[in-house]
Amino acid sequence: MEDSWHQLQPKTTFLVRVVDRVADQSWQSLTQLYQPIIGPSATGLFSALFWLPKRGTYQRHATLLAELGMDLAHLYEARLRLEATGLLTTRVKKEQGLQSFIYELHAPLVPTAFFNDDLLSVQLLGMLGDSLYQSLVTANTISVDPDPDEENISKNFLDVFHVNSQQIMNVPEAVSHARQALTPASEASDTATEPADFDFKLLGEILNRSYVDIQDLGRYRSLLITEITMYGLDEPTLARFIGEATDLASNQFNPQQFKRLIADQFGRQAAPQTVSMAAPQATPTSGASQSTGNLSQEAALIKVASETAPALFLRAIKQKNGGFVTDGEQRVVRDLVSRQLFPESVLNLMIFHVLVDEDRPTLNKNLLDTIANDWSKAKVNTPQLAIQKIRERQAAATKPRRSRKQPTVKETLPEWAKKPSEQVQTSSQAKLSPEQQDQLKARIARLEQRSKEGKED
């Protein structure tokens, strides 16, 4: 991988792939929503790569430079901005000592997905300000207000087609494989993995006896998995929350109300005593050899972290410290759970490290994101590896920083400045010959005499 634009040359070849369908809406999103963040140069680079003739064949970067009218440094900077916002994936390939690049273009997010993305929406708000940001939200929000006397008589899918409800809650293997094949690599992380100890077939059987529209509910499978993983919900409990969040008149499931109901009940419940009592006080520190006490403490921590849902683990620590879980902390943990970057045990150890080891009063999103990025890069997927990363972080924090000593500047005064004034005067007089000294005294006497005569007149 190249780390600088200096390793990019006009003669270096590249290939362009378009991995998403770029529609008219994509270009509107690129101009209205992305351009204030990435700038016109990056927007132009995206367009140039997309419309490049023979983009499926290797070409030299000199072609891009000539078309865009920019140098390599600015081309590299524009490329980084496209990569950072998810519009471009850059791959490098080496054959026979020659390096080539593959640029994979991704379609800009549709406005709804863009505004639901925390990083992109917050950055856009910072660039434009509240007023213009709200104007863009309004302009990209489709609002249809039917007349009060209009009646919706449309049939839903299950009214027209017969589908086995068990297959909806338990997606057939052929459908799952097809989805994986069709899902771009950039979105692969969004495909939620089912919890091993949750029975979706049982959930479907429970919901079949209710008024819930299972077909409509299938669209929110990822949300259900996130809530199951975060709060440790069982099948009857999840079915109850789904029923409470479903409108009786329309049978439509409300995902926001669903999350709010679970969060409210979570806030009213006390933490399980087994969780709060079992959690050790601090992560064992590193050393030449671990004692039996440290090993048992580490094993206890791993056991609790592996058997407890993240939200419950968080609440146990906060209550033991005399605090409470804030709404912001719930959102931070839910976001990490939904990303499915780590097992629950690893995520719990991350929470434990921030609140206990570093003695932070609350979970800070920026700090958690920093740790999560570091652990994801290091492929931390077991609690043992998580504890190892915690030790490395603690060791780095305790390592004394090398301070730069400012050099002492000694000012050397000239010899004449070091002598007292009397010595200077004497030295100056010593330079006159006896005859010159007599003449000087005579001149002084004449001046004094004239001064006296002037006063007598």
Question: TL;DR of this structure?
Answer:
The chain has helices at 24-50, 61-68, 72-84, 111-116, 118-128, 130-139, 157-160, 165-169, 173-182, 200-208, 214-217, 221-231, 235-244, 255-268, 273-278, 292-307, 310-320, 327-339, 344-357, 365-377, 383-398, 415-418, 421-430, 434-456, and strands at 13-18, 59-60, 88-95, 98-105. The chain has 457 residues and is mainly alpha-helical. The N and C termini lie far apart (100 Å).
Describe the protein's architecture and organization.
The chain is mainly α and 457 residues long. It folds into three domains: 5-115, Arc Repressor Mutant, subunit A (Orthogonal Bundle); 165-176 and 184-268, no CATH class; 273-397, no CATH class. The protein contains 24 helices and four strands. The protein has helices at residues 24-50, 61-68, 72-84, 111-116, 118-128, 130-139, 157-160, 165-169, 173-182, 200-208, 214-217, 221-231, 235-244, 255-268, 273-278, 292-307, 310-320, 327-339, 344-357, 365-377, 383-398, 415-418, 421-430, 434-456; strands spanning 13-18, 59-60, 88-95, 98-105. It has a four-stranded mixed beta sheet with strand order 2-1-4-3. Helix 1 (24-50) packs antiparallel against helix 3 (72-84) and helix 5 (118-128) crosses helix 6 (130-139). The N and C termini lie far apart (100 Å). Mean pLDDT is 78; it is low at 183-191, 273-281, 285-291 and 421-429.
